[in-house]
Sequence to fold (960 residues):
Amino acid sequence: MLQATDVWFGYDAGKTVLRGVSLAVPRSGIIGILGPNGSGKTTLLRLLAGTRHPQRGSVTLDGAPLTRFSRAALARRMAVVPQETQLAFDYTVSEVAMMGRYPHLGPFEIEGPADLAVVEETLKSTGTLHLKDRLFATLSGGEKQRVVIAAALAQIFQQDDSSRQDMSFRQESFRLKAEATPAESGSFRLQAEGSAGGYLLLDEPTASLDLGYQLEVASLLRQLHQERGVAIVISTHDLGLAGTLCDRLMLIRDGLVVAEGPTDEVLTPAHVREVYGVDVEVILHSSGHRIVVPMGRSSEGGHG
Amino acid sequence: MTVQVRFLRTVLGFGALMVVTMLATPLVGPTSIDLRRVFDFSIPFGDNVDAQIFFVARLPRTLAGACVGALFASAGVVFQGLLRNPLATPFTLGVSTGAALGAVLAITFNLSFAFLGISAVPVAAFAGSLVAVAIVYALAQARHRGLSTTVLLLAGVTMNAFFSAMILFVQYFASFADTYRTLRWLMGDLDVASYQPILAALPTTAVAFAVFAWLARPLNLLSLGADSAESRGLDVAKAQRAAFFSASLATGAAVSIGGPIGFVGIIIPHLVRLLVGPDHRLVLPASALFGAAFLVACDLVARTILAPVELPVGIITALIGGPFFLWLLIRRP
Amino acid sequence: MAADTKALTTGLKPSATRVVSRPGRSAGLRACIIVLWAALLVTAAAASPDFQISTSPNSQIRRIVSLVPSATEMLYAIGAGPRMVGVGSYDSYPPEVKSLPRVGALIDPNVELILSLEPQLVVIYGSQTDLKQQLARAGIGVFEYRHAGLADVTTSIRALGQRTGTGARAEEIAAAIDRGLEGIRLAVRNRPRPRTLLVFGRERLALRGLYASGGIGFLNDMLQVAGGANVFADVKVQSVQATTEQVLARRPEVVLETRALNSAWPSGDREAELNVWQALASVPAVRNKRVLFLFDDRIVIPGPRVVEGTRVMAMALHPEAFK
Fold:
């Protein structure tokens, strides 16, 4: 369980971005953090990932404060997928994905066959294995996002045996595991081993994607959650995506929590009016998708 | 092909290039020497002009060229990784201009101290580079807890401008002869005439290269953005500090040996990335080796092409650098 | 159009009016004439080094400013000293110049100060074209001095004598210099010429940035008169940046390091500076301890004291000839 308790945070001395926010992310959950721009969503993600520390309050993982973990240990449990990834140099897809293995390697250690296998598997599970020798910069938005997700999966890929000495044993167990889970509809599936499970934190995962890729990424996330037991936290302002994908939602505005709980209870016209100042109708489509229909600007509540 | 194999192939390939270049260049020069006489140890060294030319004039010069070339090229790679910009050079953040100011002061005011067997100008140049590093770092820190590369770049560019203005100011009060000598120093000069400057630079070089070795993977991660790197477990502030200081020290050492020789720090990283890809674990060692070979070759051209007059090596690197950049511009759509 | 043509034709000879009927052609002809005139003027200006706008008779040059140290010495030597009203930043001889205002030098001439001194003649460097234009516009006479070979010393003395109306005295001085140099030549005539490296600049405590005299220029000429053989005689430039390899290959038998007095090293530093040459221990000059420091303005300033400077050089090269 990843838990933020009453966290306060501000980047500069004067400005507070988060005021007393609490959020619980169970290992089995898909949580959505919703709010307008500047509400503190990205900051909350950073606090959850441990790349920033709250000025007040605490963030704990399985009961232990994040500050107790080394950076590498934290990174092995949690991975962040940013909204966009800009490369300074021309890396290939497999090189980008391999960067996810950084917290698993020592300072001068070079990735071994196990790491290569992990990366290959995660690329496959995100449907990007065929792109592995392409230059990352030449991919479409959706493909890029899926590669970055693959890298994040490679980052939190856990082994039962955390020591790296017995490579052959793990390779063997890897292969056995693969044989044990028969392929379904042509896709190779590998279950995440280990009891810990990982957390995938995505910052506006579909914001810069067009419709087709939005659907792709959304369904990928659902699949990952179901098949690998990865806990997912997404911050977004796409109400429909959040409503459809997430089982729990948090609505946040100006650093304050407006509502938090199961999706049905949070994604209501009243709450949306309060946060966005827009009157909406929330419709549950027969396919299971939640559709949020904007009706018009509200005369009360919300801010721009 | 795994990284290990590619690493070996890269290092062996570029290493061979460097070794061949360094073996061949002392044999060539404006004066023709007889190789058998050079290694004829029966002739007393004081009488053996060929050996003198080889061991006193050419060999130190080759070694200095290799050292300076390796330092500039690898520092260039690190600065480009730190600033996430393939157009960054070792001179972008003002280190070399600070060194140049030190040298100009030493030349103009005829400073005559010697430190550890090194004369005033190289010492003053190195001191100038340290001052520049300190000021730029302090400026970058003041604005931001931690190290923002944007602020670092601004601070560096500002100090570049400031030091350049100071250099012009000092030159205005200098005699014509001093101005001329300063100008020639700024064009680069690898004629060290002794092994002392190279030996004196070895500790700094060793430390810089050790830090570069550690920086290779962090630089890869930083290429995807500081936040990304942070969430992958990299201590970004520490890595950026390490990159800044090690690359600046390397640049300072290189400038104090041979003056601010331009273009090495940007041509070599570009070429190497074109040949081996952007993985810093390959690019860093390859750039160091290729940089050494490149500068030694440029120096060879500089001292033979218009014999008996010797051109400053910085002119040769600039003459190669200009067309190289044109070509880069043209080939990219 | 017709009115313009009429205006153009006034001032021309009547026969030219017949050309008026073809206005395009006459305008073109006029343009050619103007261009030719301009070219002629420019060529005349460029060709004559002593081109002067002001035409005051030579004896009426009462106030002189000189930016060039050697020219200053020449002016005093030929008797124009009392007329000097301003000297350059680096002038140091004769002692009288110390009380005169300093007007700058090659890079930084102080035009306002020069003009305020109201000179009739200003001696400037040949390369100071901007300054020359400014002085010409102010109607001030200019003498362009150019550093070249030893022979130009006497040429310049004679020319300055002409300009300042001291021709007779100038001729005396020039003749004395010629005789003095000839005397030195005779004294060393039958002696073998040692291969000499004449260094006039380098870094302190290092053999880097080493500048030596090439095969042309007054330093080279002085060395020639003094009985030495310049190791860089084949390099036809005034200044050579000598590399380690070149010094080792050319094996000078004598190294003369010459500087102006105000750039001389303090005597305490001289031993350290001498030791620097041990890096090139195989060079005959170093082995035989013939690395000599000649800090003497008479050597580095190609003025009337050039004979004494050459003699100093000759005594360093051939001590026995001057016992």
About this structure: The radius of gyration of chain A is 20 Å. Residues 160-196 of chain A have pLDDT under 50 and may be disordered. DSSP finds ten helices and twelve strands in chain A. The domain at 2-297 of chain A is CATH 3.40.50.300 (Rossmann fold).
